[in-house]
């Protein structure tokens, strides 16, 4: 199998050992974290834990895995946490961990609860001095999102939101190619994120994931546009390096539903380009079909999450190119190479992309990654997602009128 | 190589010989036709002639191939027309052909001139008793289109518009699958028709095709939406069996251009489904990328013109299916099988799809094809295209507002 | 639609008019031909006629379409031949056509009979002064093949064998890329030609095509290796520009069959490269799956007949390239561009590839095409195919031993 | 995101806790293991560790990561091992671990050294009472392989060989479909495993991986056939459930090399089917292109490692099917579902396939997995691979003669 000497350190996690960015004290080993949510029966909690394990620079040391104390403790045992760190509630976890000596105490929390239970633990954790990694979307309402944002500013704690798809290497490659300017300006973007797991009325019954996601009191006002439309919008802004400035959206839903399960939008980009976006959870045959085409003056770039290891680049006057992921491929950009774990032809997938988010945020927590894009979605990115959602809902309520997005609600710079 | 006995007649053109549908008189052999336009340097004229040759039930007997008499006559000689039937103008051709005895005289004309030279020869030909096959779009203005339509009604002559893409077998298969109702209702359609041949400012210079297509006085008010957006809209209505009822469109163009070269729309279907449409001639890397996805309650159907021999059908609970074109495939619908010239695995393409339009119209001229869809775009279909274009232009002029389409401008039934 | 001025002549067939290569007399119009075989119920006859029609430089003027006189005459009427040129036998056709004045008389014959009825009419036609285009394989035995070859040498008549697949533009592109030397030497070839139409025992019943192809007395000693293995071998030699020098083959068949329906071989190329070949008519799910990979020192080239408009070129240190067919693509080689009828994105298929063979042989008959590869398979190519078949059968009979191919049985140079 | 309640336990690793299969004593938590080899600069060691982390039922507690004691200890620190368990040699590790109390002591070793350093540590580890997981191929010679096999029999320790590719879910799906008998017997297999990382002479210089792999004293007699041909052969036998009984192989190498870097074979299967195999490390443009087609009486199955989440199944009389990986897909077999970590559309790749091997062997170590195929390659499988290699080398040395494989060299039953 192919080998690159310089890959060895990354693969073996050899760069954990460094100094704390603030105190200068040596910090050894992985970031110790506690998980909030993610007990038995939850999907995304397991994904976070596996991603952290692949990343190699995180160590799960505590958990408050359910809102039901008994279940929380039982779930902790299930995943191998010591009894005394499988807590009955996240409040208990925050309190008790603070009593531990710093070198044992958790350093960060991962929040994988439903959207309406993001803000309270996130804010409390930051107030208690912990960094936070939080499943997207940031919150169930703009108010809650702003409260999280303000807490982060106030406490100076670090925060990441897991927009998984920007963790893929070939997405970074597309971003870098566009940012290089070699292809000129962005003319048009076509993005879709379509699934079919809610395609039938009965999908709302007996499905924990489905239940809260289509319940406005838990998921917020938005369904598919909140759940996956925000991923699509985030991907657009990440890859183009531009902002969605205005849009015209129409959201719909199957009979009997209260929030959107399907919709589409036209949008404008800050650089003058135009775009279309489709987000749906009722389009039969599409499993998790996030796909984006970005047409620039001199090339068209195409990436699809279900075939994540290739990036197609079309030209007018020469053959189409297929760029392949893989450690050691000299033609890939540094940011892309930095997230390749395996040589070309050994496909990496969703869990590795997720791990790249953890890896980058772990390095950030350790005071690394001074240069370039952070490698994870920031609070500013997440607020952009909330604003995209607000504008989409407002546009749709107004019959598909054009609505402007407020550029930066937080006052922070991206 | 595989064989189907019942394909032999179609392949050999053995069914030419039949009776005139009106007079009952026996009519032998292929439909004799004259071509208007399509001289040296024109692309689409050659396509029409090759399509007619593949179809097998047409015979070119006359031509007025250019608006310049000398060039018209020279072009006629070039393609092997006898001198006395290579006319200097279409007026001359109509007059002179009428002087020939009926069994030698041309029976129909094929009009392959720029959009603004469609109406006059079409109307005159029908007045003179000739049937007409005409390159799309029908005309450069709604007025001209209505004039053609009225002439057809008045004279009772037959007329076809060459919306090529509905000639593909797997498009017919998609239509038949949806029409069968087995997949339920149409929820969402995503269609794109994108090219890159006008992606640069210089593409307007020294290119006969480009020149008239981006000149409002020749092409009408619409550029890309007229040239290829109408193909996309026609494909949507053909495959779904529904009508586009309202839309919200935004058309744009490169700096220095006078008519649209790029645009997108949201639209509604008469059955309640929603859709998105992208039409552009400036998206780099896309050659002739007409692609459609139709999501129904129980399946999603996907077809792409550049890979025309397959139809992908996605389901939620069972494997995705790839339906393959090919004579003798028992699982294909009769309408699909009727246009297969070769066994599975022997790909047919654009010219064969075009030939299917000719074949079907030729059979119609001969009084055949009583049942089912006509196999070519009718005047009603063409008027729907004009209305799609009008609504798109109006919506875009009004800043992307929603505009209703008038259901049937002609008073005729589809 | 894109346009290339310089394509007009080719499309319109404007270059028919030229001089006879031998007499210098002006020859106008298409090559007049008569067909032997190809009556009702035959597949390949219709393909030849359509191909000739697409080519544009051929005109069907006579036929002896069946070995049964009544059927021959009826089939002639079916396809629109005048009664006096729908002959009852090929002997009659040769005799009677010679009585016509030269400017009306047919100039060539197309032979589309079963393999065991190739030699007699081919030799007689050449003796009578007609050129010959003949469906592959050349004959049912080496003796018959040599007899045809000797007749061609003796009479000086022109002869072509329709190895269809070398008519595809992207096959020519692969050949030209390899011949340019830019990729170095050929290391390894993997070719397959697999079908499934004989996958069941019952496929031998009630199928005219199947019946003769699996009957040694009509098809010769070889089944699948003769029918399609020779296509694969021809493709290898055409694309690489090398010869298969030795091979080790194992041919098999389903129970109850008398000749091979499946087999594989290892082989050596004259340039030192190695290869594998699979030919089968019993591999379920493969319709007409001719596919070839040619690995050179610096690139790997991949082409598949069922997706004929692209050529994939893989490199070690840069992105994979997809080369696209299409008139006007500046990056394609002249030989490839010369057979493009439509712009990029308007797919051409099997019938157009077949038409390219007719077109090239028609130009050869008219004394054109002095340079480059002939554009059709020559008698030397066909004899190579016979030799490949002989060696494969001998190797298989000897339990998969290695067998040398005689380099050139005819004494002629390729 | 889709959810399956019953996936939760697997994902969270909740089934670690069980009884020791022999003593009946309760065994909690993951299998504690030590690694031999895999220090800085080695690729495959990092893959094993990440795979074990994803599997969730393994815990790295010790290591002897290099044959150089200082480097071994430094590498141990690099990957976070405590100083006292980062040993200077594997002998030291075995000795010292035995001194630890059983509940802390490692239970198994993972051997990731060059092929010629497999046997000694494997045998010593088993003699010392440890289970063994060993990178493929089992050893550098038949003698060494037999010695390992005999040690396993003698000691009763468990042993697994990491033939990664059988860990992919869709490979298991293909196996289960064929084993079900619904498609009839296997007629023909075409398998290839091709890479390009040794395509240039210079690839032997300055590349640790390359150096030992092309050195007979370290890798054994076989190069590409040993390194990846054995993977291909193992995949054939795994998927078909049959054995390769005889073969005819030709191995070659670039000028200046001592062992094969490229080759191909014809082979026979125990059920009567035939096959072709290509294994090469010099085919440019192929990164890690393991691909297999298995043609049965009623279907053809196709899988490719670089697109591992789909299995294509072709039929003669109905549409081709694309089977998709994904937790919760009811149409997949139990063995396939058991290795799905993510819902459909969230691609899993090479590391997850590798993790499946670890997961299964970990369960075996814990006395689980009583039913079905073991989920990892056994010593018998590995000996089959050695025999495949022996026969290939012998056939090639004898000029491509047919050679029989000894069915079972070990006397054990598969």
From TrEMBL, chains A, B, C, D:
Span list, region Disordered: 1-21
SUPFAM superfamilies according to UniProt: Glyceraldehyde-3-phosphate dehydrogenase-like, C-terminal domain (SSF55347), NAD(P)-binding Rossmann-fold domains (SSF51735)
Domain GFO/IDH/MocA-like oxidoreductase: start-end pairs: 171-301
InterPro entries: Gfo/Idh/MocA-like_OxRdtase_N, Gfo/Idh/MocA_oxidoreduct, GFO_IDH_MocA-like_dom, NAD(P)-bd_dom_sf
Domain Gfo/Idh/MocA-like oxidoreductase N-terminal: 31-162
Transmembrane region(s): none
Pfam families in alphabetical order: GFO_IDH_MocA (PF01408), GFO_IDH_MocA_C3 (PF22725)
Signal peptide stretch: none
Compositional bias annotation for Basic and acidic residues: 1-13
Protein name stated in the entry: Gfo/Idh/MocA family oxidoreductase
Species, as recorded: Sphingobium cyanobacteriorum
């Amino acid at each position: 199998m192919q080998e690159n000497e310089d890959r060895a350190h990354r693969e073996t996690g050899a760069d954990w050992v460094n100094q704390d960015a603030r105190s200068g004290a040596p910090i050894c080993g992985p970031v110790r974290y506690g998980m909030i949510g993610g007990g038995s029966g939850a999907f995304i909690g397991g994904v976070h834990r596996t991603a952290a394990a692949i990343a190699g620079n995180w160590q799960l040391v505590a958990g408050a895995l359910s809102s039901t104390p008994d279940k929380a403790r039982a779930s902790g045992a299930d995943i191998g946490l010591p009894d005394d760190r499988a807590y009955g509630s996240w409040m208990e976890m925050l309190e008790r961990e603070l009593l531990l000596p710093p070198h044992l105490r958790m350093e960060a929390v991962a929040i994988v609860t439903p959207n309406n239970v993001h803000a309270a633990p996130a804010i409390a954790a930051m107030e208690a001095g912990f960094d936070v990694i939080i499943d997207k979307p940031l919150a169930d309402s703009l108010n809650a999102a702003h409260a999280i944002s303000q807490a982060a500013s106030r406490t100076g704690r670090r925060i990441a939101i897991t927009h998984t798809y920007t963790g893929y290497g070939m997405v970074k490659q597309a971003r870098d190619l566009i940012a290089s300017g070699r292809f000129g300006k962005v003319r048009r973007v076509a993005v879709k994120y379509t699934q079919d797991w809610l395609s039938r009325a009965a999908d709302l019954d007996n499905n924990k994931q489905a239940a809260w996601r289509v319940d406005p009191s838990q998921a917020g006002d938005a369904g598919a546009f909140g759940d996956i439309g925000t991923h699509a919008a985030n991907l657009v802004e990440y890859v183009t390096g531009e902002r969605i400035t205005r849009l015209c959206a129409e959201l719909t839903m199957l009979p009997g539903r209260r929030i959107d399960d399907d919709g589409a939008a036209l949008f404008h980009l800050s650089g003058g380009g135009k775009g279309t976006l489709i987000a749906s959870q009722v389009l039969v045959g599409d499993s998790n079909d996030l796909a984006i085409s970005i047409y620039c003056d001199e090339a068209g770039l195409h990436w699809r999450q279900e075939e994540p290891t290739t990036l197609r680049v079309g030209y007018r006057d020469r053959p189409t190119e297929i760029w392949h992921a893989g450690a050691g491929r000299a033609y890939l950009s540094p940011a892309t190479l930095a997230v390749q774990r395996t040589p070309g032809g050994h496909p990496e997938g969703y869990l590795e992309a997720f791990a790249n988010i953890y890896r980058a945020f772990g390095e950030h927590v350790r005071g690394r990654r001074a240069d370039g894009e952070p490698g994870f979605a920031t609070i500013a990115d997440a607020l952009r997602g909330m604003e995209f959602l607000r504008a989409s809902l407002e546009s749709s309520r107004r019959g598909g009128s054009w609505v402007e997005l407020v550029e930066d609600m937080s006052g922070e710079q991206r």
